[in-house]
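hiii, so i know i said id send this last week but things got crazy w the move. better late than never?? heres the sequnce for the chain we talked about at the cafe, plus the structure i predicted for it. fair warning i was half asleep when i ran it
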Amino acid sequence: MPESRPAPTSLSRRELLAGAAALAVPSGTPGTPGTPGTLGTPLGTPLGTLGTQGTPGTVLFANTTVVVTVDDVRHDVSLAVEGDRIAAIGTAAELQQRYPQAQVYDGRGKALIPGLINCHAHLAQTLSRGFNEDYGFPNSYQLAVSPTSLLSREEATLMAVVGAIEALKTGSTTVVENVGGTMNTAAALAATGLRWVFAESATDRVGGSPMSPEQLAKSGPPEFSQKMREEGLQRITALHSAWHGKENGRVSVFPAAGLAENSSPELLTAVRAFADKHDLGYTIHLSQSRAEVEYVRKHHGMSPVGFLAKHNFLGPRLFAAHCRYVDAADIALLAKSGTIVTHQAAMAGNRGVIPPIPALRAAGVPIAMGTDNNTTDLFEVMRVALITERVRRDDEFPGVRPQPEDVLEDATLGSARAVRQQRMLGTLEIGKKADILVLDTQRIHLVPAVRIISAWIHNGQPNDIESVMVDGRFVMRDRKVLTVDEPRLIADADRIGKRVWAAVQKQTPIVVPGRRRK
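okay and structure toks below
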């Protein structure tokens, strides 16, 4: 905790916002499928939606390494993409004869890897980088004004796009955006070219979430609002109607219950019913804090996992985020129901709590991966997941399990199962969608490499990713993002962030916990 906190000034949020150097931001039409430019000008303007870039043609990745699956790595082969699908894998001579008009991508010194699938992100939390990581969970620093309250709608959208482009550049081709109010950002996110699952979140508990010990101590029995529940379900329905299946199927919309402790049995029933009716997945934050577990036990007489089981919310369509504080009985319920757990390893390590992934795996609980707040770098998540699981296993002969192939599979095929697209995504098998990372293997930290998957997970860097293809189109090529003006986006985000945090710190200076000011 900080040693001292100066008393806040009497400035209101309105006065702070009015006194900030506001940017003139002409808007497009937010929330409309296919509408470019929702960020307006000059904020990080998309260069256009993919729909304006023409139908994908045929691309031949020649003389390369292909990670077809984590157990099937082929060297000195070629892979053909026709339209939005992987059409063939074979020798260069064979495929050049079959596809004489194909655009040839020289694959020598490269490796093709399935695009990563990020199953849990809160994109606009990029605004709190350098603050939210170091004060526990939930953040214990009592700011007088919320940084997000100082953003215009366009600026909040820009922060979400910052997270999206970081995801793209660090290897994610599919992202689950788990927030409420996604209609405001949907068009701008779709224009990045990534594959999306918009998990529109609803809660119906009055009075916020008792996630901290202080909030828990002040909390009473849960009181639920029918109005909040109906409004949340209306948002889910509207977003699904507007966006599900759009952009050649690149966009899906799932329902989400925000938090176990903030959800009534009626909300849980309604969210699952919506998913079942429309053949969708659904998600929730689950057992992410001690306070949550204590609150649910106190007021419902069981663990959060038990509460969801009682109300028939667990099941193979559900991917539950976190599960940091689950016991043997919880794990048995998750396994029996087929519920998937999405592991945000880097954020869990940041919070100082690693979920019992070895016990979950041993019970047969499927594992997917996500990033959570502040960063959308799923490559780093894989590395942290590998290291922390090896430590937590405490094997008699340590350092063997899991293998890099295991965590890559969690972040690809395992996550594809979570978003119910394993028939289309997660591997580079013929017939699947062409969501492909091109890895530059000729890097000082990657040569020599006995196993490229192992070398990359242990020693690699996100910048090893040279190009990214989604749905058969390049969204990044030769490390240049093709769908968004990245330099302008960076400059805008930096300027907005400096303005917002200067205003915040006028009221509440940030003091590093445990360190004395000199």
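btw Residues 169 and 462 are 7 Å apart (CA to CA). thought thatd interest u
miss u guys!!
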